[in-house]
Design a protein that fits this description.
This protein is α/β, with parallel strands linked by helices. Helices cover 49% and strands 16% of the residues. The protein is built from 26 helices and 24 strands. α5 links the parallel β5 and β6. α12 crosses α13. The radius of gyration is 44 Å and the shape is flat.
Length: 883
Amino acid sequence: MTDPLIHRPTSSSTSAQNLLASPHPIGKLKVFLGYAPGVGKTLTMLQDAYRRSLQGTDVVIGRVDVRDDPLSAQLLQKFEVLPHPAALALDIDAILERSPQLVLIDHLAYVNPAGMRHEMRFLEVEELLSAGIDVYTTLNIYQIQSQADAVGLLTGIAAGELVPDSLMDSADQVALVDCAPQDLLAHYRAHHHSLNFQEVGIPEASFQPAHLYALRELTLRYAAQCSTRQMRAHLNETSIQPPLPAHHLLVCISADPSAEHLVRAGRRMADEFHAEWTVVFVEAARRPALSPQGQSRLSQTLRLAESLGAKTEILSANSVEDALRAYAHKNHIHRLMIGHSIGKNWFDPFRRSLAERLLRLDPSMNVYAIAEESSSTPLQFPSLFTPAPWLKGLAAAALAIVPTLLGLALFPWMISDLANLLALYFVAIIVASLFLDPFPTFISAALCAVFAKLWFIPPLGSLFGFSAEYGITLASMALIGLLLSSIVSRERTSTHAARLRTEQVTQLYELSRDLAVAVSLPDILQTIVKRISLTFDRETVVLLPEKDHLTVSAINLGRPLDPSELTAAEWAFQQSRPAGANTGTFSYASFRYLPMLTARGCLGVIGIWYGDDNPAELEPEQLRLLGVFVTKAATAIERGLLVEEASQAEVLRATDKLQNALLNSISHDLRTPLSSITGVLSSLRLEDDLIDAETRKELVETAYGEAERLNRLVGNLLDMSRLESGTLHISLQPCDVQDVIGSALDMLTTRLEDRPINIDIPEDLPLVPMDYVLINQVLINLLDNAVKYAPPTAPIDIVAKVAQNQVEISVADRGPGVPEEDCERIFEKFYRVKRFEHVVGTGLGLSICKGMVEVHHGKIWTENRQGGGVRISFSLPLSLPGE
C-alpha cells in the first residue's frame, strides 16, 4: 500500500541550498520509501508514473530494475528508456538533453562506477532537479543517513553508502510502500533467485523476521515524522491558526569517533521535536590542541552534520560550558545535546560533569546526555607506546633524576637543610610543566616525590615510614606538577587558538586591503589568486564566463589547465555548486571548484589545488576561512564588473551626447544650405523663362557654395565619427607644404572671394611626412574658421617654418581674437566662444583639427596676435616615427 506524504524543507541544509541556488525552476522529488528490498517500491513507482503519463506527462525511464516481476516489466514497456552502456548506471547527459517532465530512477543510494561525473546517484538526482526535471526514485529506510545508528542498534545491519537527510528534506513527497513481513518473507522464498541483495549493500542473512519487524517500525515512525512536518508546514503557511512555535536544538560534539553517533542522534531528536538544529565544536582552553587525526575526524563529522541538515559552528572560549551557554543564550536555544564523556578529566575525578556545570549556569536549559559508543580518552594511555610519548616520558624521568644527582653531589656539604634540597625538585617540576604535556609532567612530579623519599628522607631506601610533614611535602610535589601542567596546557591552547584567530584576521585584513586598492578587474583577479595561494599554500585558478564558456582569467600554475578540469569548472558554474576534488562530483579532478555567488548570480568559480593523488582535506577552520575568501572575492569581482559596466555606460553616455549634439547640429546647420539649394533649384525649374543668364549664374554659384558648405559639414561629421571610434588611419608620405596649402586655398576659392591672403613659405622648406588628405582638411578648417571670424576685408596670413626638427604651420586673422580663458577650450567638441553667438557652426572644426594633428604625433595651439586677431598653429615632426 502507498501513503503519499508531503515534506517541505524546513532547514538550511546543504542539498536544499544547492537546489535553491539553481537558476532553473526546481523539479519535484518523490521518494518511494520501503523497509527492505521486495516490498514493491519499483512497481508502485511505475504504476504512479503510468497514471501521470495517461494525464499527459512526458515520462522516461532513467534506470529501473524490474528483476523478474512480470507486471513491472509490462509497465516498463510503456515508457521510453534511456539506457547507459554501463550496467545499472544512469545516463544523466542523455536525460538532460531529452529534458522530460518526469524521469524514473531506481536505487537512490546506488554508488556509481569509477569515472562517472558523480560518485553517488543521489547527486545525479540533485542535478536533474536543479534542471527543473521531476524525479521518482526508490529508497530503503536503512539507507538514510540519520537512521543508520538506529538500524545498526536494532538489527545489526551496517549499511554501505547512505543518502543525506538534506535530500529527503527537500523531497516534495515521500510515499510509504509497505507490506507485512510475513508476506515479504514468502516473497523472498519464492523469488530468491531474482533478489540481488548486493545491489543494496546488505547481506541477505541480515533480513531475518525480527530484523524486518524492526525495520518496518523505523520506517513507519519516519513516515509519521514526515507527515507531522507536512502538517506543521501547512499550518504555518496558512492562516488557519498562528504559526507554531519554532524550536532549536544545539548539539555539542568532540573530535572523537563517537561524535558521528551523536550527530545522528541529534538529527533524530530534531525530527522528534520538529526543530532546527545546530552542531557546534568548542575549542576550549582547558582542552589540548587537536592532533591531525582529530582535525580529520572533526572535518568528517561536520560534513556529516551538514549533510543531515544541520548548521555547523566552531566556537572558542575558556571552557566548553561558557561557550555553550553564551551561544544558547544569544540564539534563544533551550535544548542541548551532549555526549556523556564530553568534559570528563582523568586528572580531576571530582570535577562535575559537563551536564551538571551547564545546569548550574542555566537551570532553565534542557540538557540531554547521550551515551556514546566510545568515550574520549584524554590521557591516551595506549599512545604512550609510540616513540614521541616515550621521548616525553624519558624527558620527564630525566627532570626527576637531575635534582636527585645534584642532591647526592651537594648534600650534605653545600645543602645542609632538606627543605633547600626539595626546592630543587620543585624547580624540576616547574620546568617539566613549562615544556611537557600534563601526563608527562605528572609522571615527573611523581618520580620527584619517589626519589626524594628513597634518597633523602629517612628511613632511606623505603617509600614508607616518614613523618606527616614530609608526606604533605611529597604530596604537594605531585599536586603542584598537576596544577602547573594544567594551567600551562590551558594557556598554551589559548595562545594557539588566539594565534590562529589573529592569523585569520590578519589574512582577511590583507585580502580586504589589497582588494580595496585594486581597481581594475585584472588587478582584482591577480590579488585573489595571490592571497589564496599564500594563505592556503595551494595553487589557485579563477575562471570567469566569456561568450557562454568559462575561461581562465587568473592562474598561478606553470602549465595550462587540463580540459577535464574545465569540464568540472563548467559544471560548478552552471549548477552553482562545488565540484571537483573531495566533493563527490568530478572527484577525479585535481582542483576543488567553488562557485562565487552574489545577488547577481554565479559570477565564476575559484579552483583550489588538491593534488593528483590522495588529496588532503582542509581543516574545518581553513574551510570556513576559504569560504569567507570566496565570498570576498565574489564581492570584489562584482565591484570590478560594475566599474567596467559604469565605464561602458559612461562611454555610451558620451556617445549618446555626441549623437544628440550631432543631430542638433545637423538639424540647424544643414537646414540653411539645404533650404538655399532647394530654393535655387525650385527657381530654376519653375521660372526658367523669367531668369536672365547673369541671374541664373548667380543662383548656380549660390547653390554651389551652399553645396560646398554642406559637403564640408558632412565631412566634419564623418571625420569626428572616425576619430571617436578610433578607425582613423593615416598614410605618411613626404609631401610639399606649399602644395598642401595651395590645394586648401583652391577648395575655398568661393569662400575667400577677394580677401587678401599672405603666404610666407621658405624656399628651402623640406618635405614633411604627412597624410596629404588629412592635413589638407586641417588647413581647410583653419581657413574656414578665420573667414568666419575676420572682417571681410581683413587679410589672412599663412606662415610655414622649421623649428626644432618640426615644421610649424600657422593661420592668422585680424578678427576680435579669443579670450585667454578660452584659448585651450576652443579645441573641445561643440565648444564655441560665447561672444560670437551670431556665427553659425557646429563647433567641431577645431576639435577635428586637433585629433588629426595628434594622429600625426604633432600638437596644435592658439594665441592672440598683437594688434588684434588670433593665430592658430600646429606642428608636424620632420621624421617618421621609429627613424
